[in-house]
Amino acid sequence: MSAHVVNLHDRPDLESKIERPGGPRAAGHKSTRFLGLPDQDFVLPTKPPYAYFIERPAGDVTPEHAHNANRTEFVVEGRIEWRERGKPPVEYGAGTLTWVEAGTVYGYTVLEDAKILILFERSPGMNYR
Predict the structure, then answer these.
(1) Please, where are the H alpha helices in 8-99?
(2) Can you give the residue ranges of every domain in the chain?
(3) Quick check: helix, strand or coil at residue 121?
(4) Residue 75 phi/psi, 5° resolution?
(5) d(CA 8, CA 28)
(6) Does residue 87 contact residue 119 with C-beta atoms inside 8 Å?
């Protein structure tokens, strides 16, 4: 396979195509861009890279869910409150890298407008709990 070079500004915002369960919806800009190969389904891609760039407004809540793959996240801008079942919430912001094992149930609230790069080791899947 040859190199894959992509700019997030050349990728469409897929947010309107993503179905999530109810919950608070914050006003403001919310976007999801898939940075993987252009011929892949962004929900269940079959070839790497499994990469996403998301923007979330302050107050946005991502409900509890889990993925089928290990997840690496890098917060480029903003601040979030991370909630993982059975553990106290954790706040962190820009410059923070996190790694989450496949199957971990978590959710988060955006405390300050955020831009986040998310990478998965394989096709992520999305399982709301």
Answers:
(1) none
(2) 8-128
(3) coil
(4) -85, 115
(5) 19
(6) no
* Dist. CA 84–CA 40, nearest whole Å: 30
* C-alpha–C-alpha distance, residues 45 and 125, integer Å: 9
Say which CATH class 8-128 falls into: mainly beta
Tokens of 95: 């410059």
CB proximity list for 29: less than 8 A, separation 6 or greater: 55, 57, 113
Residues paired with residue 124 on neighbouring β-strands, in sequence order: none
What is the mean pLDDT of each successive set of 10 residues along the chain, which is 129 residues long? 88 81 65 93 90 95 91 98 96 97 95 97 76
CA–CA separation, 121 and 1 (whole Å) = 17
Closest CA to 14 of 32, 29, 26, 27: 32
pLDDT computed for residue 15 by the predictor: 85
Residue 18 in tokens = 């993503």
What is the pTM for the complete model shown? 0.89
Which structure tokens are listed for 14?
């897929």
β-pair type (31-34, 50-56)? antiparallel
